[in-house]
Please model this.
Amino acid sequence: EDKVVQSPLSLVVHEGDTVTLNCSYEVTNFRSLLWYKQEKKAPTFLFMLTSSGIEKKSGRLSSILDKKELFSILNITATQTGDSAVYLCAANSNYQLIWGAGTKLIIKP
Amino acid sequence: NAGVTQTPKFQVLKTGQSMTLQCAQDMNHNSMYWYRQDPGMGLRLIYYSASEGTTDKGEVPNGYNVSRLNKREFSLRLESAAPSQTSVYFCASSERPMGETQYFGPGTRLLVL
Model:
């Protein structure tokens, strides 16, 4: 059975800290790994990763994929209160996205 | 350019009632999706439409039906609502057929009593 597991489930840090969110996957016919950010409502796209070891970066956010060990990490440096959200990862398996339960990140001022 | 819109935003139903959730996108996307999101379980795919004129079951289709009315609109129907269908429902679309970069609507919160 395809599955995506995220850890930790929740995380509370102070503004300025660096955080690392984890996503492991076991899916058939893996095509890509995606990260989304969900604030109050709709998830919004952050990254899509298809190749191992190549870091994707957008401002203070970066992500990398390890296809041998079947996991991805999302790093956020110099966190801000606006980074508070649920971060979702999803694995593309046979052209369908299999979603993790998410990591709820709370940034305290 | 509104992106993906959903109606209603919130609905309360009694067990056994029926309703249709509406979704429309104005990005000329090929594929559309219906998900449900429950606490601690992430998003689960109910039905999807890879292209206009086609629909397919996702992971949790039981109790639901869909209609891809045209390229813009994709509706989700609950024929006889059950408390287990209490959830937040998201519609999404993607440009490429079954593409990974999906754009989500704001969600419909459904409570079945």
Notes: Chain A has no helices and eleven strands.
